[in-house]
Write a structure and sequence with these properties.
- The chain is an alpha+beta fold.
- It is built from 22 helices and 20 strands.
- Strands 6, 7, 8, 9, 10, 11 and 12 form a seven-stranded antiparallel β-sheet that branches.
- The longest helix is centred in the first third of the chain and has 42 residues, at about 170-210.
- It starts with a helix and ends with a strand.
Length: about 625
């Protein structure tokens, strides 16, 4: 615990109480003291603590006044929200920020979802304090008291205060409406969560009784039990019935089956011919699969700002015939991404199949390396690709894991919504700028609408992995292969040293070029690389590589580029230590030169002695 921080908090509370005694009557003072006991965080940040106590008092008191009268929204579905710019003439205090006050029944996902709204708008969040506490209200809904502990007749409410970038008065209402909308989304998800979870439970029973028994069916049931037991956050679900008309099969939405956000944002029920569905959806009905997973093309507004996970479960009648499906939309919980795939139903069988068919012994060095690759593989990829495609990718990664190479693995989504690209590049080639160039260049080549990415520095590897997921524009088929994208990434990440190696290959025998490229891969400093090309570096190496010891000197004298006859460039190459200027300048001046500037460069070949290159800009007069 930060003892200093805790002392500052105590001092702040005393200062707030002192101000309150001067400004509030006795009932107000009692209520305010109850409120700040929970509202002032136990670990406030330094910036907040450094604010004047009067500023903090005004903000907290206004929040309490606002929440005290928030009885009607609290008993209904929507939250109570206030978005305003404090004005000294109205609130008796002002602020450089736009302030947001929110009062709502406490529930999961509130803070996460509010952050999504604010971050999508590109706003800086200066404070975001969510204070859940037990609130007692009278029959008319007026707040009577607050407490960190449960009290008879109390309900758990969230008292939220946020400060963001200053808005104009015209912008405030738009922000207000968007906050209300996302808070209502949260309420809808929370209210319908158990209903959707119950639908999973009913599906499990139905599949046990009706679905044809198989090893795959049993594993699918285990997966449904797994998400039922808390590893999936349900946000929506809907059912479709499979029926036949005039020799054609259709999927028709079951009326009244929508739950969660599907129900809130619902449209008229519809049907769709099977022939018009994506290849992934058709494959579900043309195979023995029980369920399939993909990503929604819509980003979640609740909990996490990512593409929602889509789970489709096939239904059967008592004859074992497919009769339709239930679609669930939501998000896997954090354990899905932190657990080993060997602990997750469906994934564990896919991973085991890859290991068993790799030809590696499970306890061998290669077998353990392959298992580590699968453990660290992007979790969504494990779901979305076939076991054969996963095996090809995993073996491909194993082949490069300890090599400084560039490789791209491309996996189109069978539902024609996304293309995922797993890009491996050497660590030294990675930078934020390089990653952004790669993301934009591949997206342009795919014709993608938008994308998301994650970056991981792989343990015990010289490589960095960039995982890119691109949402495709409607009716766009991605026909770009791995080889084409690899060349694109290589071009973006090509370094000076890479070009040096290529020039050396063109200039000398392959064995000599490879040896030279290794010796000088990290030899030249950045200042040198900015001024001199790899072709010039090869000429310099020819000059100084023959030097045997510090007693020898290599010299290059020439007119400066684009300069008159009176300006020269002198380069001196010397091993182990630079030549002292106090010796060189008088000597050059005695020869009739004027030393305009000197640039030293330390060149350090791999496991060899240092080379000092000293560049002198000289001028002389013909008079």
């Amino acid at each position: 615990m930060d003892v200093k921080n805790n002392v500052q908090r105590s001092e702040m509370l005393q200062s707030l109480k002192a101000i309150a005694k001067k400004k509030l009557n006795k009932p107000q003072l009692q209520q305010f003291e109850q409120f700040i006991a929970s509202a002032v965080h136990f670990h406030p940040d330094t910036e907040y603590l450094n604010r004047p106590a009067k500023v903090i008092f005004n903000s907290l008191w206004e929040l309490l006044v606002f929440c005290s009268a928030a009885a009607e929204p609290i008993s209904g579905r929507s939250a109570s929200v206030r978005v305003f710019n404090p004005d000294i003439q109205v609130e008796s205090w002002d602020s450089r920020y736009t302030c947001i006050y929110i009062n709502q029944i406490d529930m999961p996902f509130l803070v996460d979802s509010l952050r999504i709204v604010l971050n999508r708008r590109g706003l800086n969040i200066y404070t975001l304090q969510s204070n859940p506490m037990w609130a007692v209200r009278d029959d008319s809904g007026i707040l009577q008291s607050t407490s960190a502990d449960y009290a008879a007749g109390a309900q758990k409410e969230a008292f939220i205060s946020i400060e963001v970038d200053r808005h104009t008065e015209a912008e405030l209402h738009d922000l207000y409406r968007e906050l209300l909308a996302v808070l209502d989304d949260v309420q809808v998800v929370v209210d319908s969560f158990e209903s959707m979870r119950g639908r999973v439970e009913a599906l499990i029973t139905e599949l046990q009784n009706n679905a044809p028994d198989s090893e795959e069916m049993q594993e699918s049931l285990e997966f449904l039990r797994w998400i039922y037991n808390g590893y999936f956050t349900f946000t929506s679900c809907v059912e479709f019935a499979l029926h036949e008309d005039a020799g054609k099969q259709y999927l028709t939405e079951v009326a009244g089956s929508r739950r969660g956000l599907f129900n809130k944002y619902g449209r008229d029920t519809h049907q769709q011919p099977m022939t018009e569905l994506s290849s992934g959806m058709q494959a579900l009905y043309n195979s023995g699969e029980i369920l399939t997973v993909t990503k929604s093309s819509q980003r979640s507004r609740v909990h996490r700002d990512v593409y929602s996970d889509y789970l489709v479960v096939k239904r059967f009648n008592d004859q074992g015939q497919a009769i339709g499906e239930v679609r669930f939309l939501g998000l896997y919980t954090s354990q899905f991404y932190s657990y080993s795939p060997r602990r997750i139903p469906v994934l564990r069988k896919k991973v085991s199949w890859v290991i068993d068919n790799s030809g590696f012994g499970p306890n061998s060095h290669d077998g353990k390396a392959l298992q580590a690759i699968l453990d660290f593989h992007p979790r969504d990829e494990l779901f979305h690709v076939s076991r054969e495609a996963l095996a090809d990718t995993a073996i491909g990664i194993w082949q490069i894991y300890e090599r400084r190479v560039t490789r791209v693995f491309v996996h189109p989504d069978p539902f024609n919504k996304f293309v995922s690209c797993i890009v491996y590049i050497p660590r030294e080639a990675f930078s934020t700028l390089a990653r952004e160039k790669i993301r934009l260049a591949i997206g342009e080549r795919l014709g993608a609408a938008e994308s998301e990415f994650s970056t991981q520095f792989l343990p015990e590897s010289v490589l960095v992995r960039i995982y890119l997921v691109y949402q495709l524009n409607q009716n766009v088929q991605a026909e770009v292969g791995s080889t084409e994208l690899e060349e694109l990434v290589k071009e973006i990440t090509r370094t000076w040293s890479d070009t040096f190696a290529e020039v050396a290959m063109q200039d000398m025998a392959e064995i000599d070029a490879l040896t030279l490229a290794r010796r000088f891969k990290q030899a030249f400093p950045s200042a040198y690389r900015e001024l001199y090309s790899p072709q010039q570096a090869l000429k310099h190496i020819q000059l100084f590589d023959q030097l045997q010891d510090s007693g020898e000197l290599a010299i290059d004298l020439k007119h400066q580029n684009q300069a008159g006859n009176n300006d020269l460039q002198l380069m001196l190459f010397h091993r182990e230590a630079p030549l002292e200027l106090s010796d060189m300048i008088p000597m050059l001046e005695n020869l009739g030169f004027r030393v305009v500037m000197e640039h030293p460069y330390l060149i350090q070949p791999d496991s060899e002695s240092q080379i000092w290159m000293q560049e002198f800009n000289l001028s002389f007069s013909l008079d």
